[in-house]
Specification:
- This protein is α/β, with parallel strands linked by helices.
- It is 48% helix and 12% strand.
- It has a 5-stranded parallel beta sheet with strand order 2-1-3-4-5, sandwiched between helices.
């Protein structure tokens, strides 16, 4: 927000002071005027006031009392208190009540401009802090470009549409990376300082969804002790990501539709429209067309958000992406846990690619996190993977007569590898540890291709 677009409210009972301040500020700000606290309050309820020049001594509601009301109900407004005289005690009280600064009426015009610029920058910083605190504290997350054709086509589409203002609808199963893709669209759209506000509608209690999205005024309902900005306002100038949009109840679907079409919202308990300018990205794992037919989702809202649909395929349909995703998560959790796992062995990668991944990318990330956390080796091998992955490798494409034998061999091989690791790849010591003859262990190592692996790693 630039200073030219900001609104300054001058509250002073002296007309000449109002005229002087207006002349100083009108070139850089939109200026509103009030002669008392009583006339200022209706202006504050109707207008989006950013900065306030407030006289300490006012008829009726005092300046300090109006300051208290301002900070309780319009917390983002920055207030500069002005007085005919410099009174230390009054200045201290003003600062305690949240005033940005305290000045006398004989202050130099350039100093007034400078103070208002600083107050405006302070307000912008506060907005950014609110934006950042509203985000999930996981800024390191990024969309990982895999080698599959499906992923490359999605990324190509993002490059084409990122700088357009059109609404994007991301479809896909849970865990496929819908929020990561939304963040990619946001980053590619430019504006590195623009906010990205994610909202998981399924995770918000139903009675709080409206307030979360559109905000509320102080006293709008029981428990509304202060004004709260909604996610639409926090996302101004950036991107609002509404995940699990199919969970939005029908009455709020109508309100969301109006917000998208009109480009404005109204806080709960408010009586003025607030303009919004943002990029909307919605996502769901639900078949919205089916939901429309069943009356669970508004048809007009569906067509309004389905401008640029992007379908994220499940991980099982793009197995080529698994190695790069696994490598990415390996680097992340190496850094987080201060480990130095060098990689994932090819047989283990083959098993990861063959697995069905019902939890998609989220399941893969959780697996790599767990493997890195407990690993004390240079490489993660197939023997380190849970039994589900061992069984997945044995699932037959058709009928197989040797499935049971293959399962036994897989278990036996992993068991022997773990025993060798425990015994520092000393074959004789491993045979003693397992309680079997050395010749039996060597035979099984040759049969199960373990002996070759042992030679490579330990020169056995």
């Amino acid at each position: 927000m630039t200073t030219q677009s900001k609104t300054v409210l001058i509250v002073d009972d002296d007309e000449s002071t109002r005229d002087t301040l207006t002349a100083i500020l009108k070139q850089d700000y939109r200026v509103l005027r009030a002669s008392s606290g009583e006339t200022a309050l209706p202006l504050l309820s109707r207008e989006n006031v950013d900065l306030v020049l407030l006289d300490v001594r006012l008829p009726g509601i005092s300046g300090l009392e109006l300051l208290r009301i301002l900070k309780e109900n319009y917390s983002l407004a920055e207030v500069l208190m002005i007085s005919a005289t410099s009174e230390v005690e009054t200045a201290v009280q003003a600062m305690k009540h949240g005033a940005y600064h305290y000045i006398t009426k004989d202050v130099d015009p350039d100093q007034i401009r400078s103070l208002l610029r600083n107050a405006s920058e302070h307000q912008d910083l506060n907005r950014q802090v609110l934006t950042l605190s509203a985000q999930v504290a996981d800024q390191e997350r990024e969309f990982v470009v895999g080698s599959s054709k499906a992923t490359r086509e999605i990324v190509d589409l993002v490059h084409k549409i990122a700088r357009l203002s059109a609404t994007v609808l991301i479809l896909g199963e849970s865990g496929t990376g819908k929020e990561l893709l939304a963040r990619l669209v946001h980053r590619e759209s430019g504006g590195p300082n623009a906010p990205f506000i994610p909202v998981n509608l399924a995770a918000i209690p139903r009675e709080l969804v409206e307030s979360t999205l559109f905000g509320h005024e102080r006293g709008a309902f029981t428990g509304a002790h202060r004004q709260q900005l909604g996610k639409f306002e926090l996302a101004s100038g950036g991107t609002l990501f509404l995940d699990e949009i199919a969970d939005l109840r029908l009455d709020l679907q109508a309100k969301l539709l109006r917000a998208i079409q009109e480009g404005e919202i109204e806080r709960i308990g408010g009586n003025k429209a607030i303009k919004t300018e943002l990029r909307l990205i919605a996502a769901t794992n639900v078949d919205l067309e089916k939901a429309v037919k069943e009356g669970r989702f508004r048809e007009d809202l569906f067509y309004r958000i389905n401008v640029i649909p992007i379908r994220l395929p499940p991980l099982r349909e793009r197995a080529e992406d698994v190695p790069k995703l696994a490598e990415f998560f390996l680097r992340r959790y190496n850094a987080r846990f201060r480990k130095n796992v060098l990689g994932i062995a090819d047989p283990a990668l083959a098993m990861l690619k063959q697995y069905r991944w019902p939890g998609n990318i989220r399941e893969l990330e959780n697996l790599i996190e767990r493997l890195v956390a407990v690993s004390d080796k240079d490489y993660i091998g197939e023997e380190d993977l849970p039994l589900d992955f061992q069984f997945a490798q044995l699932e037959p494409e058709g009928a197989r007569d040797n499935l049971f034998e293959d399962a036994i061999s897989t278990f036996e091989r992993n068991f022997i590898v773990r025993a060798l690791e425990r015994c520092s790849w000393n074959v004789t010591g491993t045979a003693e540890y397992l309680g079997i003859p050395l010749s039996t262990l060597k035979y099984k190592m040759d049969k199960l291709d373990v002996r070759q692996l042992a030679r490579r790693l330990r020169g056995v």
